[in-house]
Each structure stands twice: as structure tokens, then as C-alpha cells.
Design brief:
The chain is an all-alpha fold. The protein is 89% helix and 0% strand. Helix 1 runs antiparallel to helix 2.
Amino acid sequence: MTILIAALIGATLGGFIAYRRKGRRADIAQYAAVFAMIFAIIWVFVLILVTRAAT
């Protein structure tokens, strides 16, 4: 569930960055998708590290 939250935060941030750079709708969608994937992957690694450190 937290991975989805991280992806949502990434999508929001990516869309905002593309919007500030005066991107078209396709640019905003692409930035949002890429940032969502990046944030989700990073969060997965963070969760793995935290889980391994806890055990």
C-alpha cells in the first residue's frame, strides 16, 4: 500500500515539474508516469533495506 502512495507522490511531482516547464498534456503524462515508476522502485528498495535491518 505504501508503494502506491510513493507512486502517487511521484506522479504528482512529475506532473507538476512538466507543467512548470510548460509541457503539453503528453509531456505531463509522460513525466508523471516516469516519476511514479522511479518513486515506486526507490520505495521498494527502501522497504527491503528496512525489512532486512529489522530482522
